[in-house]
Amino acid sequence: MLKIKNLHANIDGKEILNGINLTVNAGEVHAIMGPNGSGKSTLASVIAGKEEFEVTEGEILMENESIIESSPEERAHKGIFLSFQYPVEIPGVSVTNFVKTAINESRKAQGLEEMGAKEMLKLLREKSELLGIDRKFLSRSLNEGFSGGEKKRNEIFQMAMLEPKLAILDETDSGLDIDALRVVANGVNTLRTKDNAVILITHYQRLLEYIVPDFVHVLHNGKIVKSGTKELALELEEKGYDWLKPESVV
Q: What domain of life (predicted)?
């Protein structure tokens, strides 16, 4: 699904990613943890193609095809989805119109016709019920006046509607109470299949109690310094990050 080789990236000349190597296969969930400033959100942004970051070395392959020169839109059309840590408010654009436009732009890029109104309505109904979203929510302006929990639930709703091959969730658990966390986690778990993959970026082990990862990776100074199974997250919860050194064996 995704292969990252020796990825280096900077912003304004400051190097943040310092040789990332990561392979994510279809059907897998990978959690990326690490202290503040270790490069977690930068990695998510670089995979998604945010243009303020400059890739200076390395490669990103999506289904064995390089996407290093692809625009964010092209990457989205290839099936990459990024759930933001701080979703943007867009007054005047309803949740429904936003996802309809996103779906039809992706379909157009794949040479498909626009989804019909009846089919779109059916999909909206199915996915909103799946995530316990009130239909009135769909007519509200995107993220405008939303609580933290509503914003994160909306991100998962977009993921459900777009059905990406690779979903990157950047600290989706930040600012959520336990009930909202359960709703978001349940949505992610329901959407998991053998054909898609998820990268979870998180500070906290508590999210991984609800979305159990196949692999956990620790980022430090822009490099993955340790990888393991879900037990590694428990170890981090107990010990913190100080015991990990950049030269640790991955």
A: Bacteria
pLDDT at 12 over 80: yes
Topology of the domain comprising 2-248: Rossmann fold (3.40.50)
Q: What is the mean pLDDT of the chain?
A: 88
In the chain, where the domains are located: 2-248
Q: Positive or negative CA dihedral for 58, 61, 65, 68?
A: negative
Cα–Cα distance measured from residue 97 to residue 125, given in angstroms and rounded to the nearest whole number: 14
Antiparallel, parallel or unpaired: β 54-62 and 215-220: unpaired
Locus of tokens 């436009």: 101
The pair of three-digit structure tokens given for residue 150, joined into one six-digit string: 């509503």
Which residues fall within 8 angstroms of residue 48, CB to CB, at 6 or more apart? 72, 75, 76, 80, 82, 168
Q: Which residues, other chains included, contact 237 with Cβ-Cβ below 8 Å and sequence gap of 6+?
A: 204, 205
The type of residue at 131 is L
218's tokens: 């620790």
- Give the CB-side neighbour count of residue 220, counting CA atoms within 13 A: 16
Single pTM value for the model: 0.88
Structural contact between residues 123 and 160, judged by C-beta atoms closer than 8 angstroms: no
Strands 65-66 and 54-62: antiparallel
